From TrEMBL:
Residues 41-50 have a biased composition (Basic and acidic residues). It comes from Streptomyces diastatochromogenes. One of its GO terms (molecular function) is hydrolase activity. It comes from the Bacteria. Residues 31-63 are annotated as: Disordered. This is Class F sortase. InterPro entries: Sortase, Sortase_dom-sf, Sortase_F. Pfam families: Sortase. Keywords: Hydrolase.
Length: 206
């Protein structure tokens, strides 16, 4: 369990962000969501140094990731009674959430965004998250009218039993963003076995 601000947050439960029930009928081998390659998990140190000045806090309202055609509203997420991050309603396929007790995207620290990879009907908002490449752009619209622009540093997949809480949720000295969904291997009995995590940092605003 990792503390962000004044609140402790446990690793996201993998089953909460995707069920893959639809894969059983569609054929898991041909319809499984893309997974990141090992190369995308090795950030370029030069790219990481290009950081924009932090923005004042402002709640996010929408996330866009053009290369994977994501354009989704954001809702606030709290913690469950077990200490895990809650998730958006599974029925809302094009809806993501952000951890509203933590850092807002664009201010100094680690902001957390999460969304479903699929639901019982098929692919959801972050189905293609594992296909992102280093350097891809993530845009987050904010309530104050500004847009925080992030650059992807790395895309990794972790088994649930080895989820690195400190690395994903730990405090940052610059404005950073994590985008999380289900991933890893899939079991008919237990669902997805891990999470895809995108690591990004602020490179601009408008």
């Amino acid at each position: 369990m990792r503390r962000i601000g004044d609140t402790a947050i446990a690793a996201i439960t993998v089953v909460a962000l995707g069920s893959a029930v639809w894969l059983l009928g569609a054929g898991a081998a041909t319809h499984a969501p893309p997974q990141p390659t090992a190369a995308e998990g090795r950030p370029d140190p030069g790219e990481e140094r290009l950081t924009s000045p932090a923005l004042d806090p402002s709640p996010p309202t929408r996330i866009r990731i053009p290369t994977i055609k994501v354009n989704a509203p954001l809702m606030g997420l709290a913690l469950t009674s077990a200490g895990s991050l809650d998730v958006p309603p599974a029925a809302e396929k094009n809806l993501a959430g952000w951890y509203e007790a933590g850092t807002t995207p664009g201010e100094t620290g680690t902001a957390i965004v999460a969304g479903h990879v699929d639901n019982t009907e098929g692919p959801a908002v972050f189905y293609n998250l594992g296909a992102l490449k280093r350097g891809a752009v993530i845009e987050v619209d904010r309530k104050d009218g500004s847009t925080a622009v992030f650059s992807v540093d790395a895309v990794e997949v972790y088994a649930a039993r080895n989820f690195p809480d400190e690395k994903v949720y730990g405090a940052a000295a610059r404005p950073e963003l994590r985008v999380i969904t289900c991933g890893g291997t899939y079991s008919k009995a237990t669902g997805y076995q891990g999470n895809v995590v995108v690591f990004a940092h602020l490179t601009g605003s408008r």
